[in-house]
Each structure stands twice: as C-alpha cells, then as structure tokens.
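Listing S7. Sequence submitted for prediction.
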Amino acid sequence: MDENTPEVASDSIRYAGKAVDDSEWIVEFLSEQTSGVVGFVDEGEPHLVTQLFVYDETKGAIYVHGARDGRAHGIVEHAGTAPVCFTTSEMGRFVPAAEPVNFTVEYASVVAYGTVSLLDTREEKRRVLERFMTKFAPQLTPGEDYEEMTGGSIDRTAVYRLDVESWSAKRGEKPPEHPGAYDLDDVRETG
C-alpha cells in the first residue's frame, strides 16, 4: 500500500468482531464488486445514486460516470468538490437461529468517505472510461468488437472522481458446513 491508500476507520464499527482493518482486503473487495451507491448532499438533503464503478488503487480514487446533467451532476458542478460517501456490499448465505432476533446473514461491505469532483480533460476521462471497459467487458477488444471511443462521446460523458480519505469494512462469514445456513435463491426455487 502507498501514500494514496485511504485511512482505515473500521475501528469505529459498533460490532468490532466483524470489522476489517486490512487495506489489501478492502482493495481486493472493491476490485471484485461491480456496483455501489454514491451518497451526495444536496442543500442538506441526501441524494443516493447506484452506479457501476472502478477503483484505482494508485490514485486512491473510486470513479463513476453518467450523463452531463441531472441532480448528481448539478451538485458536483455547482460545488466543484463536494463531500461524498460511497458503499458497496455483497450478501452470502442466510443463517437461522433458535430465535428470529438472532437470525443473521453472511455479508461483506465497504463504506468510503471523501470528496467528489468532475474530471475535465478528455485524456483523463478516456483513461477512466477504458478502465470501465476493461473491468466490465474484458473479453472484448476495442476497434474489433466495438468502436473506439470518440472525442464526442467522451465529451458528453461526466466522469466523477471520488477521492477516498477514509474507509471502513465489515465481513461476517460462517464456515461452509455451518448448520442450517442456506442460499435464499435455492430455498425460493425449492419452496
């Protein structure tokens, strides 16, 4: 990890037994996830947007993209740099218990805090958008399977850089043979 690695704030998690303080695990988890929720503040009101994302470990930044209009774009364009929160998670098996209040679920999550700004140069935006293509369409080759990105398509796309200042992570897992643990989709199909 280098100087762009965000501060781990997992020690503030209420249930310390599930806190993750391993930045390498957090980076790996972020690289495996496909979508997350970005939380903006708009005149004192929360505004949440679900987005595909890529994480750049060398920059300590999460990138998302979208149209050059709409509420999120207006928030960031007006502020220049705005406070932001981001989260991504995954669920595993459900774990029953004798009392419903003790039922739980396997899960992992990361919450990141920092600021968000818009990228302004075509070169920066192209680099990030190419990372999206590599992450989400690794089997496709630019120029063969799809057209190269034109300057016009890059110009009409807003690319947001979330500079992560701190993050926290949680993970709750049970051993594979844990009694009664089940995948909800499996029981829905058979139930």
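Caption to Listing S7: primary sequence and predicted structure tokens for the chain studied. The longest strand covers residues 157-172. Helices lie at 23-32, 71-79, 122-136, 151-155, 184-190.
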